[in-house]
Design brief:
The chain has 1159 residues and is of the alpha/beta class. 46% of the residues lie in helices and 12% in strands.
Length: 1159
């Protein structure tokens, strides 16, 4: 690397970026080392500030924030404790860090011991910081925890608003307009409104203008039309005179039957007007340059007004057509104009838009009310609250008082991944720096890569990055810098990427649409031998299986020949892996899928969902039958049919909702064994239980009956988990990933439960659907010959791979489309002009009995173009993950004339199709044709494998350990004054839950982050959290919790427990297995850490001495109740690590510390 420093093409730009007195916007393509550059910039800035808090680093993901913090802290530690490295680049970072360490010593920052003083936050985290710190000074008030399922609240807000249709007044009148437009379909209206709420931080600040100005949308459309026509008019200037003459000729010679509108044009002397009134005429004359599909014309004839006998004029038009075809940018402008709205908004549409301008602010306000009632919010609410805090206090004001106070703290702001910024976030940044002055020593440093903007679905607008390169961000003009060096990929890959993507990316930038030209890179690494980029095509009916087989073969070869090198399979959608993962498994390859398999699709979770649903709903036959079919019961289909028949024909119990399923089964179980079969035969259509079915029902029905009778008396998670354990659920798991998935589900159930039930099953199911299963590795067989482990094949989506790199990258399914664009009920677009001014265009779907209007069609095309542009960027990100080799795969089809059929517009292969087609024609790339096999060799159908996975009939449930361990459930919610009482009220459990959350937060964040003012705000937070748990807290209960926290903080032992320690953990879950039965269990430990070489285990308790009970009696009672539980914990840790273990109970309300002897 030392020899390469002088060869780095952009070395001057990198050095310039470290100037602490200047503001920059840096374009940093893939592999250019932008995180290292940001690290060096922060280290340089540390040498110029009085406090490290004056530097704010913002990124867009927690992963990126962690990486940035790790890089900076590592650099500081190395400069403090290690010698200067010989590598020139590393030495430069070491020098910058060493200077920062000296500054740290001089000013007493103590950064090495307190790295949290460096402010490195996500954009959402920073918005929340602003909104929370100044909550009392904004209209939003305290900011609660973001909801995990805001969609539920969006639907509720829409429903509440729509319910006002029955009330008299303007709201009902506007709702009537909305409903009439959608065919009086309330469900459609609710969907329309709820979908908009998730993006309200974009349209809410703008919709007020629309509500006040009935012509707002018309004005915006007219501006968009004028901008496009003006751009085209300028592009046509070199040929305008000739074009006008030829148009006039065509109008005089075209037959009315061929083009009536053109024949009616009359004498034509100049191009049409620049405005909405001229759009129709523009489209008419542009029809001479493009076909009906808006492709550039190659020929022209009498039907367009150019008869064959007018050779001179026809030659002139052909020259003009050739001139146009040679200019792709012009063709794009023409296509844009051909799709412009060509008429004013009609009365019905305008009435609908006026209604939306009136209703949407009310809808947002209704959502705020619901959030306040629930003690929740969402990320758009946090962004809006932060914007409100920074908003100028009076009209014409420059900055708010809050901004001025932040100004004293902030001197330098760095923003990473700036290409993924939304308009609202840009607005926030502009408000934040609104008071900055030129040359006042404060700087803005923006870093990103417009070619890697992938998050349009999260409201990211790459056009804002382009705008910031040209115009000031607020009062700050950033100097543009472009990095070109690529430190990741070898030269062969870089050459291919440069060649393929120069053509794939648009030639002209478009800020509003987010179109950006390609910026080439220069490889730092020399080219490898062999083909750097390959494409394997597949043709035939079995192309998916062929592709999967090829990938498995390729991975096997790479693993065998390059065992230490990393391999990644990156896909656009998870559905692309349906054939690939089975092929990898059959090839005995070691793979790991990250965020690929939804948790709800994993069989252990499906079984637990059925069990939960059954316990909550006794009449849910599907859930109960699913439980009986699950592996821990394993009834055959015949036995299930017998059960179903017994339910249907049990006249005595079939209408008793509380035992509609269990009652007939219990009666069946209670019948004498010798009568069971005959009873069943006479009453249930001669359907007999199998021997296995009878034995299984004898084992599980008492367990189900006991669990049902005890419903509501215990924590729901504990009930479901214990029943699952008793029935043998853990024994049916196949690997550690199954166990991890089961734990994830049970933990989620605990978070969602309200006492002994779930208040909203649909919301809980949505939460389950959003989680992904644990990575599922399959052992690939023996390790390498040297004993090292063979490389793991990583499988993930392209979005998930952003920021990562792999030696070998495989991209399957490139010819698969992304699906058709469904007709949305409302389309809207934030239009950003070249001056960074924003405006909103909205168009509702045509009325239920009408066609879509031209504005809606225009926005639909704009959405389609944005999606295609982003698809190109997605492919670019995928290709630039490769270090040594890139393997592309896709389906191709050769036509009868020998040419290759182009792929669909929505595929990832389309942007680079010309490069692929050229490689196919030259024989560089090959195609595999599927073999046609209609039958097996003997002509017989190959039978499929059918089996039932279930427990052995001799299975016995595991012996429960001491009940005080309360397996799998945080014990902190299970105590009372006298003893461990499973029937403890849900109020006490809920209070224990929120107190434990707070103590965990105190320990994780550090006591220095919790001043008295913040502590005193806790009751409001607790009230909201308890409300979410289904409990309305009394003032005395909140006071009791606050007293417990303050008592613990005032107690020396309490502070010792919460302070930072080695290997400290809060609510740590420990799994264990009984050696005799293979039973798996989980214990959760409140607080554990190592202090002076000893492992401490602390269990929090809310108990207090009973009335008249002495302290000695209280200590004896509590020790007796919990000694077995803590001994169990001590044994778990004793088997895991060599440190001596000590255990204690801690009672925050008293406060009291009781050490128990670990047996």
């Amino acid at each position: 690397m030392a020899q390469l420093m002088t060869e780095i093409a952009d070395l001057q730009q990198r050095r310039q970026a470290l100037d602490p007195s200047q503001s920059f916007i840096v374009s940093a393509p893939a592999g250019s080392g932008k995180t290292g550059l940001i690290t060096q910039r922060v280290l340089r800035l540390l040498c110029t500030v009085d406090n490290p808090e004056e530097i704010l680093s913002i990124t867009f993901t927690r992963k990126a924030a962690r990486e940035m913090a790790s890089r900076i802290h590592s650099a500081l530690r190395q400069a403090a404790y290690t010698p200067r490295p010989a590598n020139e680049y590393e030495a430069q970072t070491w020098d910058l860090a060493a200077a920062a360490v000296e500054r740290n010593k001089l000013l007493g920052w103590n950064l090495l011991d307190m790295p949290g003083r460096l402010r490195i936050q996500t954009i959402d985290g920073f918005c929340r910081y602003i909104a929370s710190q100044f909550a009392l000074e904004t209209k939003f008030g305290p900011i609660p925890e973001p909801s995990e399922q805001p969609q539920i609240h969006y639907q509720s807000a829409a429903r509440v608003l729509l319910d006002k249709i029955e009330e008299a007044g303007p709201v009902a009148e506007q709702l009537a307009v909305l409903l009439a437009h959608t065919g009086n379909d309330m469900a459609r209206c609710e969907t329309l409104l709820s979908e908009l709420l998730g993006k309200r931080e974009q349209w809410l600040p703008l919709i007020y203008d629309a509500g006040k100005n009935s012509q707002y949308f018309q004005q915006v459309i007219e501006q968009v039309v004028a901008d496009n026509l003006l751009q085209l008019d300028e592009a046509l200037m070199p040929i305008a005179g000739e074009f006008v003459e030829l148009i006039d000729f065509a109008a005089q010679h075209v037959a009315p039957k061929d083009d009536f509108a053109l024949s009616e044009l009359g004498s034509f002397s100049e191009l049409p007007e620049i405005g909405l009134e001229g759009v129709a005429q523009w489209k008419l004359i542009l029809g001479l340059l493009v076909t009906k599909s808006n492709e550039p014309r190659k020929t022209i004839n009498v039907k367009q007004g150019f008869p064959s006998d007018q050779k001179e004029v026809k030659a002139r038009i052909m020259v003009l057509l050739d001139w146009c075809r040679e200019r792709p940018e012009l063709n794009e402008m023409i296509a844009n104009v051909m799709h412009l709205p060509d008429a004013e908004i009609n009365q019905a549409q305008q009435k609908m838009l006026d209604a939306l301008g009136f209703l949407l602010p009310l809808l947002a306000a209704q959502l705020d009310v619901i959030f306040q009632q629930q003690g929740q919010c969402d990320y758009p609410a946090i962004t809006l609250a932060a914007l409100n805090a920074l908003e100028p206090e009076a009209e014409g004001g420059v900055v708010s008082d809050i901004t001025l106070r932040l100004d004293y703290q902030l001197r330098h702001i760095l923003v990473d991944e700036f290409q993924d910024t939304s308009a609202a976030q840009i607005n926030l940044l502009e408000q934040l720096i609104g008071g900055w002055q030129p040359d006042d020593g404060r700087t803005l440093f923006l870093v990103g890569d417009a070619m890697q903007s992938l998050y349009g679905f999260r409201n990211a607008n790459v056009g804002l990055f382009l705008n910031a390169q040209r115009h000031p961000v607020g009062p700050v003009q950033c100097t543009p810098l472009t990095l070109t060096s690529n430190f990741r990929s070898q030269e062969g890959i870089i050459q291919w990427v440069n060649s393929a993507f120069t053509e794939a990316f648009p030639a002209r930038a478009d800020i509003s649409r987010g179109a950006i030209p390609y910026s080439p890179s220069v490889a730092v690494k020399a080219a490898d031998d062999g083909q750097s980029v390959s494409f394997q095509g597949f043709a035939g009916d079995d192309h998916k299986l062929d592709e999967a087989t090829y990938i498995a073969e390729l991975c096997s070869q790479l693993r065998d020949h390059n065992p230490a090198e990393s391999i990644a399979i990156l896909v656009r959608g998870r559905g692309h892996l349906r054939s690939i993962i089975p092929a990898l498994r059959e090839a005995k390859l070691y793979w790991q899928a990250i965020d690929i398999t939804p948790l709800a699709s994993r069989m252990p979770v499906i079984d637990l969902l059925s069990l939960t649903r059954a316990l909550l709903s006794p009449a849910d036959k599907i859930a109960w039958l699913a439980v009986l079919r699950a592996p821990f019961c394993g009834l055959s289909l015949g036995d299930l049919l017998a059960v179903a028949n017994s339910i249907e024909k049990d006249d005595e119990n079939r209408y008793q909702q509380n035992n509609a399923i269990l009652a007939p089964l219990i009666q069946l179980l209670e019948a004498p064994a010798d009568q069971r079969s005959s009873q069943h035969s006479s009453q249930h259509s001669s359907q007999h239980f199998s021997q296995h079915g009878q034995e299984t029902l004898q084992r599980i029905i008492p367990l189900l009956d006991a669990a049902w009778k005890n419903r509501g008396r215990a924590n729901l998670r504990a009930t479901v988990e214990q029943l699952w354990i008793d029935m043998g659920g853990p024994a049916t798991l196949q690997n550690s990933a199954d166990l991890s998935d089961a734990r994830s589900y049970l933990d989620l159930l605990e978070n969602w439960q309200t006492g002994a039930t779930l208040s909203d099953w649909n919301s809980f199911k949505l939460a389950v659907d959003k989680l992904y299963a644990a990575p599922s590795p399959d052992d690939g067989g023996a390790d390498n010959s040297d004993g090292s482990q063979k490389s793991v094949i990583q499988i993930m989506t392209i979005h998930k791979a952003k920021g990562l790199e792999f030696d070998h990258v495989i991209l399957p399914g490139l010819s698969r489309g992304s699906g058709s664009d469904k007709k949305q009920l409302l389309r809207w677009q934030q239009h950003i002009d070249e001056h960074s001014d924003s405006s909103l265009i909205m168009a509702p779907l045509g009325a239920h009995d009408e066609e879509d209007d031209s504005v809606y069609s225009y926005l639909k095309r704009e959405d389609s173009l944005k999606t295609r542009l982003e698809s190109t960027r997605v492919l670019y990100v995928a290709a630039t993950r490769a270090v040594r080799r890139l393997y592309l795969c896709g389906t191709v089809k050769q036509l009868k004339n020998g040419q290759w059929q182009p792929t669909g517009k929505t595929t990832l292969l389309t942007p680079i199709w010309n490069s692929i087609e050229e490689g196919l024609d030259q024989g560089i790339y090959t195609v595999r044709q599927s073999a046609i096999e209609a039958f097996s060799e003997d002509g017989k159908e190959v039978p499929s494998l059918r089996h039932i996975r279930r427990l052995d009939r001799q299975f016995q449930p595991p012996q429960r350990p001491d009940s005080s361990a309360n397996l799998g459930t945080p014990e902190t919610a299970a105590e009372s004054g006298a003893d461990i009482d499973s029937s403890l009220s849900s109020r006490a459990r809920s209070m224990g839950t929120v107190l434990h959350r707070t103590l965990k937060q105190l320990a994780n964040e550090g006591l220095d982050q919790w001043p008295e003012a913040r502590i005193n705000q806790l009751p409001a937070t607790w009230a909201a959290q308890l409300k979410e748990l289904g409990m309305l807290a009394r003032p005395d209960e909140l006071k009791s919790l606050l007293q417990a926290v303050n008592s613990m903080l005032a107690d020396q032992r309490g502070r010792w427990i919460l302070q930072r320690h080695e290997q400290a953990q809060c609510e740590q879950a420990l799994g264990y297995r009984y050696s005799d039965r293979g039973h798996v269990g989980t214990s959760v430990i409140d607080r554990t850490f190592i202090d002076d070489g000893t492992r401490w285990i602390i269990d929090y308790k809310l108990s207090q001495p009973a009335e008249g009970e002495s302290e000695e009696q209280f200590i004896r009672r509590q020790s007796s109740a919990y000694s077995a539980q803590l001994s169990h914990y001590a044994k778990l840790y004793g088997s895991m690590q060599p440190n001596p273990v000590r255990c204690a109970l801690y009672f925050p309300q008293i406060p009291m510390f009781i050490e128990l002897e670990a047996e």
